Write a sequence for this structure.
């Protein structure tokens, strides 16, 4: 693992009410690639490498039949990662999806990445149901256990919280699904295709965006490259601003496009710093606490009102730009 500081040559506050705290340096960022100790040998299928980390096991979701890869790290938190639009080649072996899985596994957090068991040419309802099914599967403890050779059997821990991470088309789906998963404690949207969302969801994107906004206090991170191939900075900023100010963060990564080839490490750095800032009260500046931290306070409180049903108010964030 590399210890990688956040490279901040410039931070631009788009909102005035706060910012992500980038004072904590040294996120542990795994380096994705064909040669890496945590990756098994790649299998080729139609010219595309299928990578599996050493902790992952293959299984199938019982209802939808979606094929998935789960790394059971025996953590209280489980991260579910969704992929870009299938008709354009998106699947769970995508570089961003794999990088996110490796990042969280390196922090000792259970992960699931899966292929949508649909054509993804539709209005998004079935895909949202598959994310909800994936969350139920993890929260019920049905996922396979994993113990390294020579290591003692540990008491199996069933995840109690879900963090959703969606990339491109997958971010539209996870955003909508967050309203249906009470144990969801946060949602990360990587390169949300805001300028083409109507086409991807057959003019049903309004439904899913409004549904995503139901969890008004749910911490959210939206991040995009300044050279994104599908959405402009203006359309992205407007999209971020349409969500509740107090719980939504937006980040612009300079000179990165929609695909983040060669910029995966920078992207994971952004996510790491957002995690440290958002859950500062339970992480205490240490990302390695993420898998065991009690994040239940961020679970569902109120799905329809902008007021939290008691408890502390969520921290304020802003939209920032950095290299």
């Amino acid at each position: 693992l590399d210890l990688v500081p956040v490279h901040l040559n410039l931070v631009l506050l788009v909102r005035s009410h706060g910012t992500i705290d980038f004072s904590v340096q040294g996120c542990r960022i795994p380096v994705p690639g064909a040669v890496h100790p945590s990756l098994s040998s790649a299998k080729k299928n139609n010219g595309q490498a299928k990578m599996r980390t050493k902790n992952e096991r293959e299984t199938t979701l019982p209802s939808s039949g979606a094929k998935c890869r789960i790394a059971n790290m025996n953590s209280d938190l489980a991260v579910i990662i969704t992929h870009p639009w299938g008709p354009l080649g998106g699947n769970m072996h995508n570089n961003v999806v794999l990088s996110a899985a490796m990042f969280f596994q390196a922090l000792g957090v259970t992960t699931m990445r899966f292929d949508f068991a649909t054509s993804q040419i539709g209005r998004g309802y079935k895909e949202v149901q598959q994310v909800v099914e994936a969350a139920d599967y993890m929260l019920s403890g049905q996922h396979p256990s994993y113990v390294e050779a020579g290591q003692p059997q540990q008491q199996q821990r069933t995840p109690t919280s879900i963090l959703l991470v969606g990339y491109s088309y997958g971010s539209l789906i996870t955003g909508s699904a967050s309203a249906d998963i009470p144990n969801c404690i946060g949602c990360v949207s990587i390169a949300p295709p805001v300028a083409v969302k109507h086409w991807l969801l057959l003019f049903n994107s309004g439904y899913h965006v409004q549904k995503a906004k139901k969890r008004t206090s749910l911490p959210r991170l939206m991040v995009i490259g300044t050279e994104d191939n599908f959405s402009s900075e203006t359309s992205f900023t407007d999209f971020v601003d349409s969500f509740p100010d107090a719980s939504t963060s937006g980040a612009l990564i300079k000179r990165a496009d929609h695909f983040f080839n060669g910029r995966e490490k920078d992207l994971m750095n952004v996510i790491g710093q957002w995690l440290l800032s958002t859950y500062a009260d339970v992480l205490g500046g240490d990302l390695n606490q993420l898998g065991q931290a009690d994040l239940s306070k961020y679970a569902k409180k109120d799905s329809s009102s902008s007021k939290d049903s008691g408890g502390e108010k969520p921290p304020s964030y802003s939209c920032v730009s950095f290299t």
